What we know:
Blueprint: H1 2-23, E1 30-31, E2 36-37, H2 41-61, H3 74-97, H4 99-114, H5 119-140, H6 155-161
Helix pairs in contact: 1-2, 3-4, 4-5
Transmembrane segments: 7-30, 42-59, 80-111, 117-137
Domain DUF1468: 7-146
Protein name: Tripartite tricarboxylate transporter TctB family protein
Amino acid sequence: MLVADRVIAIAIMGLSAYFMWHAVELPIGWNGMTGGPGGGAFPFWLSLIMMLCAAGILVRSIGRHDGGQSFFDGVMLKSVILVVVALFATIALIPVVGAYIAIPLFIFWYVKVFGRHSWLLTLCLTIGTPLFLFFFFEVTLKILLPKGITEPLFFPLYAMFF
């Protein structure tokens, strides 16, 4: 298990370095002309955070012994396959029904069906996540997410916020 932790941590650190290398091709500081961060700011800083988290995992795994534990057992492998299939289904649904339907469907399935959590937590996450995504990406950053067939439902919101 610790070998897998180390390998994945090193791979994530390498991927983070690659993302940071490409992000610095764009301005990463505050852009005075647009009054906001440069195009490379979010990719750079998120990649740096990702690299630091992976470094923490790597450091924590050094000096520990796992006692020969296997990384996956049958139950864990089934769970991973289920989540991967659900993620692929979510990604396939996004162009059709939009991010604001596909993502809450995945969250509902993951939290309530797969995770067997309470209705309160399920509803808070299922409703709160698309609201946060809308206000963060579309209203604050002016980045439109795919809406698929639900696009006409957003016209009143566009009129209100843009």
